[in-house]
Amino acid sequence: MLNNLSISTKLTWMNIVVTGVALIVAAIAFLAYDQRNARAELVESLSTEAQMIAANSISALDFNDPQSAHATLSALSASKNIEGAGLLTPDGHLFAEYWRSPDVRVNVLPRLQPEKKEVDIFIGNHVTVMRNIDFGGRRLGAIYLRSNLTPIDERRNQFLRIFGGVLLACMIT
Fold first, then answer.
1. DSSP state string for 10-54
2. N or C: which end of the chain has fewer CB within 10 A?
3. Distance (Å, rounded) from C-alpha 50 to C-alpha 84?
4. How far apart are CA 59 and CA 164, in angstroms?
């Protein structure tokens, strides 16, 4: 089939294929870079929320007031991607928790090493940020926030739609 085409047509098709491959390789590299940055931004945002909730929970932990801690955690209902959060005592026992719905509740959490201030764990379509809560030189406990990855998925899907449109436009012209 290719033998019957003119040199000009063969060069045109070769140019289309090379341009398409270059565009696809560039898009894959950019998507990987963007997804890595999106994950880092999400973790940073969760870390900031964890710091604020931890600061507002110090008195509840210090004075053993789980109801006040639950009320503080319930403020996370305004964050649409946060599925749940909890406060743990220094020995790792659950002190208070908030879950958007019972079907997203996590029953087992990894223990945060004492020397680490914070850790983030990506599992499936979720990320959990755990952070130690220290006050006055004492460890009062830890906080964890669990979020879905919907913002990252939406960002990826939007990129793929734009890329598909650009690729289509390049192949048509």
1. HHHHHHHHHHHHHHHHHHHHHHHHHHHHHHHHHHHHHHHHHHHHH
2. N
3. 12
4. 52
Helix (H) or strand (E) run with residue 144 in it: strand 138-148
- Residue for token digits 């909730």? 53
For residues 110 and 80, what is the distance between their CA atoms, to the nearest angstrom?
24
The predicted model scores a pTM of 0.83
pLDDT of the chain, 173 residues: tens digit per residue: 667 888 888 898 888 888 889 888 999 999 999 999 999 999 999 999 999 999 999 999 999 999 999 999 999 999 999 999 999 999 888 899 999 987 767 666 667 777 788 999 898 899 999 999 999 989 999 999 999 999 999 999 999 999 889 888 877 76
Phi-psi map region of 5: left, alpha, beta (phi>0 left; psi -120 to 50 alpha): beta
Q: Which residues on adjacent β-strands are paired with residue 84? A: 99, 146
